[in-house]
Specification:
CATH class of the largest domain in chain A: Alpha Beta
Largest interface: A-B, 19 and 19 residues
Largest sheet of chain A: 6 strands, mixed
Helix content of chain A: 40-55%
CATH topology of the largest domain in chain A: Rossmann fold
Shape of chain A: globular
Number of helices of chain A: 15
Order of helices and strands of chain A: HEHEHHEHEHEHEHEHEHHEHHHEH
Number of strands of chain A: 10
Radius of gyration of chain A: 18 Å
CATH architecture of the largest domain in chain A: 3-Layer(aba) Sandwich
Number of domains of chain A: 2
Distance between the termini of chain A: 44 Å
Strand content of chain A: 5-15%
Structural class of chain A: alpha/beta
Strand order of the largest sheet of chain A: 1-2-10-7-8-9
Oligomer: homodimer
């Protein structure tokens, strides 16, 4: 897939991945609606296989590899959900997945990658070392790199989440998706354009990793320097393929503080009985912190994933509240 | 409702409560299936209104009161989910709910009752004081008592959960429901008898509150003396209306230790991304601890509720693990 996916591409991709993915449910909560002052529809990607939307894109990329490439396996560097997603997608196709992970990745995510049969190589938690280690692994194995987001195959796969949501809930006024590398947001923008033309799409981003916010405003790619957010899935920066789609199609990028992310996460856990990771809570935090934008609107929210370490929840750590 | 509900009663009750309750989804997990060695279907009552199945029975009891009784309001003593359920059901009918709660009830449950408009009177955490306080409240208000479980209207309401499950997943080999006072288990037994004749129904009970296990074996009601289980919804004993249904219809009562309850709870949280309270995890714990009984079987599990205090989760408390 060499150019920005079109409507027909996304429809085709949905058929390709359908046998492997879960059609995730849409949850609602009158309690959360009345707190937010709007009508919210939560697309529950924490119930997706591997516990995150990332399995959609990874499955598409792996299942459409040609036979010769597939035989050498796939490889990526990822601190989390993309790693699990690629490992399971590869296992579903019967090929190897080589995963480069920073030593600082949450234990629960490392164990999950191993459980899906991924072959893990650890590296330093810096982008240069991640890339260097990945190059070494690829040189040794010949594996094909599957980038977590800066790849049209991935973007088209992630687009399927919003496309499903629009089938279940037609005519949404707004959609809010978290933005890290931008795979989910750019895919959501494409599905909105093709399948729900009047829906405004917002990206939701931690202030501590606000590269999308900066890039969107200055109309050029400005990578994040140091992302200290609790939303570990959103520490990455936009790529050259995700940024142009977002620059053209997003209604806005909305930033939220760390304490607001934790509050939104607790609200989803307590009132909706849904386990979501901090990155997934960023979208609801954006609605809560910018409620004028959404007042009275039918608004979709993509809950991006639910992989958390139960032994280390943010509200157990006074540091997170102390900062604000 | 003066006698054990029949098939026609349960069908009628379902129509009465349908406008008020949620039709809760059934979740599955291939990861949990392979750990347990059987095929599990989880009926998700944590997504029921008020976060627990109790809303089914309370709604039925409140909505079928005659106009004269209803005007005086309803009353109960409850440490938790029945209190919330009765408060919301009463609000839905536009009448008052008087709730007697022990001072030791979890804060999150007290706040929820208040949020649903329930009028709370606190008492000592002993059965005699709960009953005495309730009598005083009823003497003052004339409110009708709605017992949490020992009432055929309640039993018929709780029966609707299993009836829905059998519609969604016909032909289950087994069903496991937690047992405290026995409202959910006796209702599940009735629905199984009428709508899924070949399904064996098991009660799952904490060893620390094993009155149902004792009563079932000795064929007479033996109330629990001191129930120190973490599964706070299951500390009560069977009643004169629930026990005979269970004695006749249960395949067995299965007991589990506290550590097994916590392990099962973490498994549901981590692998299924579902928030369930300890009482709900008891049913999965029973499957894990008695796996020979369920090997290869299509087994339904009723996840009874999801009301937990996120600031006070069992795995954060070393005492719970230290005991075993």
């Amino acid at each position: 897939m060499e150019q920005i996916p079109g409507a027909a591409d996304i429809i085709r991709v949905r058929k390709i991945i359908e046998p492997y993915i879960r059609r995730t449910p849409v949850h609602t909560s009158s309690a959360v609606d009345s707190i937010c002052g709007c009508q919210l529809f939560f697309k529950c990607e924490q119930f997706q296989k591997v516990g995150a939307f990332k399995f959609r894109g990874a499955t598409h990329a792996v299942m459409t590899l040609n036979e010769r490439d597939a035989r050498k396996g796939v490889a990526t560097h990822s601190s989390g959900n993309h790693a699990q997603a690629l490992a399971l997608a590869a296992r579903n196709r019967g090929i190897e997945a080589h995963i480069v992970m920073p030593q600082t990745a949450p234990k629960i995510k490392v164990e999950a990658v191993a459980a899906y049969g991924g072959k893990i190589t650890f590296c330093q938690p810096t982008l240069p070392d991640r890339e260097a280690t990945l190059l070494k692994v690829r040189a040794k194995t010949g594996a094909v790199e599957i980038h977590p987001y800066n790849d049209y195959r991935i973007i088209a796969g992630q687009a399927s989440a919003a496309a499903e949501l629009y089938e279940d809930e037609p005519g949404l006024d707004c959609l809010v998706a978290p933005v890290g590398g931008g795979g989910l947001l750019s895919g959501s923008i494409l599905s909105s354009k093709f399948f729900s033309g009047k829906t405004k799409v917002y990206g939701a981003e931690p202030e501590q990793a606000n590269d999308a916010w900066k890039s969107f405003r200055q109309k050029k790619l400005i990578p994040v320097e140091k992302a200290l957010t609790i939303a570990d899935g959103l520490r990455t920066s936009l790529g050259c393929r995700t940024f142009p789609i977002i620059a053209e199609g997003a209604a806005d990028i909305l930033c939220v503080e760390e304490a607001a992310i934790i509050r939104a996460m607790m609200l989803i856990w307590e009132r909706m009985k849904l386990i979501v990771e901090p990155s997934a809570a960023v979208a609801l935090a954006a609605v809560l912190e910018h409620r004028d934008l959404f007042a009275g609107k039918r608004t979709g929210i993509i809950l991006s994933g639910g992989n958390v370490d139960l032994m280390n929840l943010p509200w157990m750590d006074p540091q997170h509240f102390g900062k604000h």
